[in-house]
Design brief:
TIM Barrel, 294 residues, 8 strands, alpha/beta, binds flavin-adenine dinucleotide, globular, eight-stranded parallel beta barrel
Length: 294
């Protein structure tokens, strides 16, 4: 396990020119935190591959490491090969490899069934060019047959050549530690970075959580519900809860935190500062990645 902890941030590619401009401002605010890298989602919410790629290139130009997400469901080997070549040609060396989800109406699954097949393909095609991160689900992926089955499937991704993982968000620190025990028992020791979802909007969070299988513990749900439309109280409570969660995770040995920024800077910045991540050299980012020479 690495001694230096990793702190990073996820953004998504906006669909409009105004959104792209707003994300530039957000990134400028987040850049002050010196995150280890920015990851950029693909497909979620209908974003295009080009959108993901363009944001990744902007991030590189700003002097940061960019890790675009690459999904495989509904794709062919050839289209993934093109995507990998495009990344290589632009000096991108870090990707997040995922299966992704298709709308239920979509009939064609493509040439990959699961993310482990994608990881295997990327390694076979590109050797060690990429650092490959994969997804992990401490509270179980909603389509998994059982927790153990999900752990076994995670192990397959690590064995296929993943370097690290980022978790789905969760609010029970114990679920993360239990998951880590299970994967370590299975002989997997890649770093599993905890995915952190700041709390700012209860309705949106409840919807997301129902879809992705992340539990909002009853005590948190009740408190958030009790605030109704009082956004300031939701935010204040959310900051306390998430900061404490991060503290528990770091104290318990989590190798890093990956913040789901939802393209907003304020909450991630506040949590980052409360945790003093910027001052804790042993766990802060060691560098702004050198601007990639193409
Ligand atoms: P897999 O690891 O393939 O797992 C999918 C399901 O299949 C699980 O239930 C697993 O247990 C099961 N499974 C896996 N392998 C096998 C096997 N060999 N046999 C039987 N069952 C198996 N979605 C997007 O569309 N775009 C994004 O940018 C994006 N970014 C994400 C980032 C992170 C950090 C996370 C945690 C999720 C992200 N997602 C994204 C959501 C993700 O695509 C969905 O959760 C998707 O349903 C599963 O993707 P996966 O890579 O985990 O799939």
């Amino acid at each position: 396990m690495p001694t230096q902890k990793s702190f990073s941030i996820e953004v998504f590619p906006p669909k409009t020119p105004e959104g792209i401009e707003a994300l530039r401002k957000t990134r400028a605010e987040l850049a002050e935190l010196s995150p280890k890298y920015f990851s950029i989602t693909y497909g979620a919410g209908g974003s295009t591959q080009q959108g993901t790629h363009n944001i990744a290139l902007e991030i590189q130009k700003e002097g940061f490491e960019a890790a675009p997400h690459v999904t495989c469901i509904g794709t062919t080997r050839e289209s993934v090969r093109e995507r990998l070549n495009e990344c290589r040609a632009n000096g991108i060396r870090h990707i997040v490899a995922l299966r992704g989800d298709l709308p239920s109406s979509y009939g064609v699954l493509g040439e990959f069934r699961y993310a482990n097949e994608l990881v295997e393909f990327i390694r076979a095609e590109t050797g060690d060019w990429f650092r490959i991160d994969v997804a992990a689900y401490p509270e179980m992926h909603p389509q998994a047959k059982s927790l153990q089955d999900d752990v076994d499937n995670f192990v397959r991704k690590a064995q296929a050549g993943a370097d690290a993982a980022i978790t789905q968000y969760f609010y029970n620190a114990s679920s993360y530690f239990r998951f880590m025990e299970n994967v370590q028992k299975a002989g997997v020791d890649i770093p599993v970075i905890a995915g952190i979802m700041p709390i700012t909007n209860f309705k949106q969070l409840a919807q997301f959580s129902d879809m992705c299988g992340a539990e909002i513990p009853r005590w948190i749900r009740l408190r958030l519900e009790s605030y109704g439309d009082d956004l300031a109280s939701i935010r204040a409570f959310g900051l306390d809860v998430v900061t404490e969660l991060c503290e528990q995770l770091l104290a318990g040995g989590a190798p890093g935190l990956h913040f789901y920024s939802l393209n907003k800077a304020a909450t991630t910045r506040e949590i980052w500062h409360r945790l003093k991540l910027d001052e804790r050299k042993e766990i802060g980012s060691d560098k702004k990645a050198e601007a990639v020479q193409v």
